[in-house]
Amino acid sequence: MIDQNTSTEIFDAIAKRRGERRNFMKVAGGATAAFGGATLLSACGADNNNPNATPTATTSPSPTSTASAATLDLDILNFALNLEYLEAQFYVYAVTGQGLATSQTTGPNSAAPGTVTGGAQANLSGDPLVLAYAREIAADETAHVTFLRAAIGSSAVAMPNINIGGGTNGAFTQAAIAAGIITQGQTFDPYASPENFLLGAFIFEDVGVSAYKGAAPLITNKTYLEAAAGILAAEAYHAGLVRTVLYSKGIGTPSAPAIPALIINAQKISDARDSLDGTVASNSVGAVDIDQGLTVTNAGVTDANLVPTDGNGIAYSRSVSQVLNIVYLNTAAKTAGASMGGFFPNGLNATLPAFKTSAANP
């Protein structure tokens, strides 16, 4: 268990990081928030396992042709905020056993936030390295929430209902079943061990990177382009760290036995994300896989694959709908107002349906 002193240190670190972001906001406060553009792009390149594959690209339709650019900017920022609520709650619960403060999750006019189902303090005390990483990421993700809420101002949406449970009805259990890690009737608790925690984090991190990457071509305000690039970089650091530790534990070290199931299960999660978002395409060379596991085999030699990229070494993008397919854990179209499922049981909080409605896989 994490004692009171440790919890205090965690929140001190979070407060410090918030202060750093506030300094930025003092400089950027006069600028107009601008993720200029209608929606996230989904750009695919050549498969890392097929370096000769021809890059392909797809785009999502515009949410609306009549909404003002300023309104769309806020919708895109709020979409990102929904995802940051999810990540922050998972990590903060994992390291402290409690979630974000209500003041960090309320909406306009103090609208009540949704509830968090299933969050718990993770059993990380036996692995100081993973515990230290979890504490750092928790501080970063909390700072992202604070930063985006400050950027959006009074239009910042309240946190929606979030499910981060590992019980029978938990979203992590649903995700593990979808990936084939467990079967119906079993459960997957991401808080039970350092290894389970890492696999739980692996579900989120690559998705966050591809979501922010998809927004990059649409940002027109240079101040916020720099800020978004900074968040993207932080998410990429997190994803690379999680992938590296999983790989290291998977192959083992002289002082620790190998846990090959970690590499196998990470691949299953990657395959499930590909299946959910429908991004696997075919060309003359073969399948183009925008989501990859921890290893790659070329000419019979298996190497680490710690950075999932296309043949040009560039990270992939996902559209809004593709991200929603993954977090809703559903390949079918989920319309606004319907029961969404997965990590957002009632969907995201958004004004435009396009930012909370997933589409059927292509």
Describe the protein:
This is Ferritin-like domain-containing protein. InterPro entries: Ferritin-like_SF, Pigment-catalase-like. This protein is mainly α and 362 residues long. It has one domain (4-355). It is 46% helix and 7% strand. The chain contains 8 helices and 8 strands. It has helices at 4-28, 69-96, 128-152, 171-179, 194-215, 222-251, 260-277, 320-327, and strands spanning 41-44, 56-59, 116-117, 162-163, 281-282, 287-288, 295-298, 301-304. It has a two-stranded antiparallel sheet with strand order 1-2. A hairpin with a 2-residue loop joins strand 7 and strand 8. The radius of gyration is 19 Å and the shape is globular.
Q: Would you spell out the secondary-structure blueprint of this structure?
A:
Blueprint: H1 4-28, E1 41-44, E2 56-59, H2 69-96, E3 116-117, H3 128-152, E4 162-163, H4 171-179, H5 194-215, H6 222-251, H7 260-277, E5 281-282, E6 287-288, E7 295-298, E8 301-304, H8 320-327
Parallel strand pairs: 3-4
Antiparallel strand pairs: 1-2, 5-6, 7-8
Main sheet: strand order: 1-2
Instruction: Determine the number of helices (DSSP H or I, runs of at least 4 residues).
Output: 8
**Structural class by sheet pairing and helices:** mainly alpha
What is the residue-averaged pLDDT?
80
Work out the number of β strands: 8
Helix content: 40-55%
Domain unit count: 1
Order of helices and strands: HEEHEHEHHHHEEEEH
Determine the N-to-C terminus distance. 46 Å
* Strand content bin: 5-15%
Low-confidence parts, pLDDT < 50 over ≥5 residues?
1-11, 20-67, 282-286
